[in-house]
Amino acid sequence: MLRLRVVSSKRDIDDLERNEQMIHLSFKASNSDIFRLLHNCPKICTIQFPTYYREELSKAGEMFLAMQGIELTE
Predict the structure, then answer these.
(1) Which domain holds residue 49?
(2) Mean pLDDT over residues 33-43, rounded?
């Protein structure tokens, strides 16, 4: 069973387990935060953002995640 892991700050990224697959980012993540998240959790398949943060995600960041096969949800 997959569980949605809530990440509420940049510091929490380093506390995640490598096998996490579904993440909810409840803070405004920069591209470097997302790259660090992917490095720390290589099995991620879904990242969920609040609508207002998702709208601020850069197009480059969205394209990179799509190329990695990661689904973005709100």
Answers:
(1) 4-73
(2) 93
